[in-house]
What we know:
This protein is α/β, with parallel strands linked by helices.
Amino acid sequence: MTSPNATTKTTSESGMPPLRIAQIGPLYERIPPKLYGGTERIVSYITEELVRRGHDVTLFAAGDAQTSAKLHPACPQALRLMGKQELGAFLQLPMLSDVYENADDFDVIHGHIEELKPVYRRYKTVPLVSISDAQRPPLAFMNWVATVYHGLPRDLLTYSKGPGKYLAFLGRISPEKRPDLAIDLALKAGIPIKLAAKVDVVDRAYFEQVIKPRLSSPGVEYIGEINESQKNDFLGNALALMFTIDWPEPFGLAMIEALACGTPVIARPCGSVPEVLRQGVSGFLATEFDDLVQAVKNVDQISREACRKEFETRFTADVMAAQYERIYRELISARQNGAHAQARFEEGRAAAR
């Protein structure tokens, strides 16, 4: 491990003793990611905010992670941009061994990996926190203890009063994200659209066969994958973010990135979307094509100030970290109370003999 946090505090920001927390991140992208990487970005935000709040945090991740926590590297560099993403599943195993062989060094171990149903079935009693209520149904048998929505640092993206000049699509080019629908809606509404998204190898055929032919249409521009510093202008100058997904998205970080810039969201009500967006306040939700077209045409009815307020109230990193800290303490208390109750039971049984 690297050297400990620069400052050791006797109390956390909440006024209670600091916790010893292990954060376990994926190895595919750097923490925080250089380009695409929603989970890695959230792991970074949680980690940095918990350190700021006075906790002793150790981050288990790739060695090129940038963090103010202690860093325990599982491999020298993040794997995707090295072209070695297939090693992730293997390298996670020794990393997990490192964590749990030293479990007594931590009050809390918070994992962000192993999204495999057979793994969950093996460990049904492990406390899980969902990132939306919509994430739970496929794993209804698990021990869900809370829902905590993702959050961004308050000053990461700045408010833009607009009005925007184009529709924006951000994230990943893939069939379940439906960039083809976003383009078709923009063309029907007569508004330009810009797409800033990566194309994974598995989605290359979809891009070539479905998306590329649409890029020759007037007003359609494909920018490619963008970094964090480019998002502010891209989203802030947009009329709306098109979140035209066709799958049960567990959260959808792009939605709150848009809200942070004051940009409304036009979305299909799949997965977490109805939890994140408020109809008529932070965007419009619709399922049918014509209704989505009308939503695009009416998007100027949404207050950009209200969008930013939604972000500041519900989706900031400090709000997120405070909720996780509360959950950590509740779980620790429950474990301690359970241990005390078991000890009293054993004492009573011994006395009865």
